[in-house]
Write a structure and sequence with these properties.
The protein is mainly alpha-helical. The protein has 3 domains: about 30-105, Dna Ligase, domain 1 (2-Layer Sandwich); about 110-190, no CATH class; about 195-340, no CATH class. The chain contains 14 helices and 6 strands. The chain has helices at about 1-30, 50-60, 65-75, 95-105, 120-130, 140-145, 145-150, 175-195, 205-220, 225-240, 245-250, 260-265, 290-295, 320-330; strands spanning about 40-45, 85-90, 110-115, 165-170, 305-310, 315. A hairpin with a 5-residue loop joins strand 5 (about 305-310) and strand 6 (about 315). The chain is elongated, with a radius of gyration of 33 Å.
C-alpha cells in the first residue's frame, strides 16, 4: 500500500511539474509577445477602469492577449493598481510589459489648441467651437455668460484669456480649456502688476490689460511695443485722447468693412478714443505677454505721436509739428495739400 501511494504521489508531482513547466513556457511566450502591425494606434483607459477591464479591452482590440496573462503580468510586477486613465499611443513591436509600463507611467497622448494674441473673444469662441479634440459642452447662451460659468469675478470676457498653445488630454471640455486659459492670464497679470514700474498712469491691473490690448493691436513690429506703450502713457498723463484706430474698429463691430471714415471718427461710443479721454471700458483684444510687459515697463520717451512708415515700423514724434511732417512724408507721399489733420 505504501508503495502504491508513493508511486501515485510521484505521478501527481510529475504532472504538476509538467503543468507548471508548460504554464511557465506559455507565460514566457506571452512576455515576448509583440503588438502587431494591424493593432489600433491608440488605446483609451476610461476613468475607473481596473486591470481586469483593461486587459479584456486589450484582448478585444487585438493588441495584447490573452487577457488573464496581462493581468498576471501586472500582478507579478505589482502594478495592477497603478495604471492611469487616458489615451495612449500603441506602436507595433511593443511588448506586453512595455504597454503596461506606458499605462503605469501615464504617458497619455495630448492634443493642442492655440489662443492667438490679438484675437477678440468672438474669434476665440470660433476657434474653440471648431476644435474636434475638445469636448463641446457650451451653448451660445453659455458663452454669453462665460465669466460666471468659469467662476471669474470679472464681468466681461474680452482680453481675459492668455494667448498660448495649450496641450491637453482627450476628454478635455471647452469649459475646462477656458478655465485654464483664464487662470493663466489672471496669474500672469497679477505677477507682472506686482513688478511694474513706478508712477504709471494706471490704477489697477485691469487698466494694464486694457492698454496692453491696444498696444497689441497698434504694434507692427514687436520691439516697438515698449515705445508705443510709453506714447499712450504720456498722453494719459497729459489728459490727451489716445486717438488710436484699433479702438474705433472695435467699437464699429460688424460695421467695419476695412476702412475708417471721418463719420466713424465723429460717431461717439465708449470705444471712440477720438471723442473720449482715458482708456476704453474693456480690452479690445487678447494681449500677449510681451504687450503686458511693455505697458508695465515702457521705454522712456517724450513721444506723443507715432505714424506708420509703411514697412511695419513707426515714426515717433514729440510734438504735433513733427507728427504733421511725418504724416505728410510717410502717409501722403510728401503731398502736404492732402493733409487734413488741422481741420
Amino acid at each position: 500500500m505504501k508503495t502504491v501511494l508513493s508511486t501515485l504521489f510521484l505521478i501527481l508531482l510529475l504532472v504538476a511539474a509538467g503543468a507548471g513547466g508548460f504554464g511557465f513556457l506559455q507565460y514566457e511566450k506571452f512576455t515576448k509577445q509583440q503588438v502587431g502591425d494591424n493593432a489600433p494606434e491608440t488605446f483609451e483607459i476610461k476613468k475607473g477602469s481596473n486591470i481586469k477591464r483593461v486587459a479584456a479591452d486589450l484582448e478585444s482590440a487585438g493588441i495584447i492577449k490573452p487577457a488573464w496573462q496581462f493581468q498576471l503580468l501586472a500582478k507579478i510586477k505589482k502594478q495592477e493598481n497603478k495604471i492611469k486613465a487616458g489615451e495612449f499611443s500603441i506602436e507595433p513591436g511593443m511588448s506586453a510589459e512595455a504597454v503596461l509600463d506606458r499605462f503605469v507611467a501615464g504617458k497619455t497622448l495630448s492634443y493642442n489648441s492655440r489662443i492667438v494674441e490679438g484675437y477678440k473673444f468672438t474669434d476665440l469662441v470660433k476657434t474653440i467651437k471648431s476644435d474636434p479634440n475638445l469636448v463641446q459642452t457650451l451653448t451660445d447662451a453659455d458663452y454669453a455668460d462665460i465669466m460666471n460659468k468659469i467662476g471669474s469675478p470679472h464681468k466681461k470676457p474680452e482680453g481675459w484669456f492668455f494667448p498660448d498653445t495649450y496641450n491637453y488630454p482627450r476628454g478635455t471640455t471647452d469649459l475646462e480649456f477656458l478655465k485654464r486659459s483664464h487662470k493663466a492670464m489672471q496669474d500672469f497679470l497679477d505677477k507682472e502688476w506686482q513688478q511694474r514700474d513706478k508712477n504709471l498712469p494706471l490704477k489697477k491691473p485691469y487698466d494694464a490689460l486694457i492698454l496692453a490690448s491696444i498696444v497689441e493691436k497698434e504694434t507692427g513690429v514687436p520691439e516697438e511695443r515698449p515705445l508705443i506703450a510709453q506714447v499712450f502713457h504720456n498722453r494719459l498723463n497729459k489728459g490727451m485722447m489716445l486717438q488710436t484706430d484699433p479702438t474705433i474698429i472695435y467699437g464699429m463691430g460688424e460695421r467695419f468693412k476695412g476702412n475708417i471714415r471721418k463719420s466713424d471718427l465723429r460717431r461717439d461710443n465708449a470705444f471712440n478714443t477720438y471723442k473720449r479721454t482715458g482708456l476704453t471700458p474693456t480690452p479690445i483684444a487678447t494681449p500677449s505677454a510681451e504687450a503686458i510687459r511693455a505697458v508695465l515697463h515702457p521705454e522712456k520717451s517724450k513721444a506723443l505721436y507715432f505714424v506708420a512708415r509703411g514697412d511695419g515700423t513707426s515714426q515717433f514724434s514729440n510734438n504735433y509739428r513733427q507728427h504733421r511732417k511725418a504724416v505728410i512724408k510717410y502717409q501722403l507721399r510728401g503731398n502736404a495739400k492732402r493733409y487734413t489733420g488741422d481741420k
